[in-house]
Amino acid sequence: MPTDPDGLTQPWLVSLQQQRVIAVIRVSELELGLQLAQVAADAGLRLIEITWNSDRPTHLIPRLRDRLPNCWIGAGTLLSRADLQAAIAVGAQFCFTPHTDPALIAAAVAQNVPIIPGALSPTEIVTAWQAGASSVKVFPIQAVGGASYLRRLQGPLGHIPLIPTGGVTCANARDLIEAGAIAVGLSRDLFPTDWVQAGNWEAIVTHIQQFHQHLRHSVRFNEVRLNRDGKPGNDGTEEGTHNHLKGGMAQEFN
Predict the structure, then answer these.
(1) Cα(227)–Cα(135) distance, rounded to whole angstroms?
(2) Which burial class, exposed, middle or buried, applies to 235 when counting CB atoms under 10 A from its CB (0-12, 13-18, 19+)?
(3) Is residue 254, in this structure, part of any structural domain at all?
């Protein structure tokens, strides 16, 4: 079927630009996944990834789609074509993989679902982008120097929207944004274990809000990204985003 990579990529980039943070949820109990996603949404985050090795992701994702209509609910840790198809079938609105597989990228693009493959070297990053990736996950970022490595990629690869994950914390996220990341993916650092075990949800909401506010002070937080042709994308307003979203899905961004 015909596809429009830029039409697919642009609303995703607008969402990343407005939020800059993806809450990554990996849980062994479905009910905990529901709670953590609700906490993230209550704190103002609108991009939520459910890893495919969580408890019953095929049930968790559609329940979150119903419960959090103003959020993008996606799937991560997708390793195979079967994983990808199952995630899309239950309503995943974006898909992360830990690796670069052009066949998976093509399958997602054909179904108008943003896909963010994992890559580390410049060769892998360019391969993923040229295959049609909506953005590229740089993983595991801290293992190769964190913000320093990301900054060095900007010269030749600054046109590619990069999302570092793997060792990202509330303390180093701002450095990564200032080094050129369009967004960052965080998991455990958003949801401190002690507070989760104690059910201290209000404290976690406050923690996430304070972190997000700190990130907004980054000099690059409001930077406008370009589309795949190097031209300015839509204006980044909610209306512009709404008009691009598949199926008329309504999005609200704080």
Answers:
(1) 11
(2) exposed
(3) no
The dihedral of CA 126, 148, 145, 177: what is its sign?
Answer: negative
Q: Pick out the chain residues at pLDDT < 50.
A: 1-3, 230-254
Helix (H) or strand (E) holding 175: helix 173-178
Q: What is the pTM of this model?
A: 0.86
Domain range for 151 is 5-248
Q: What is the pLDDT of residue 218?
A: 74
**Does residue 253 sit within a domain?**
no
Residue carrying the six token digits 């079938």: 89
Would residue 154 count as lying in a domain? yes
Tell me the C-alpha distance between 170 and 204, whole Å. Answer: 13
Report d(CA 77, CA 68) in Å as an integer: 21
| Residue 151 within a domain | yes
Structure tokens at 102: 């052009």
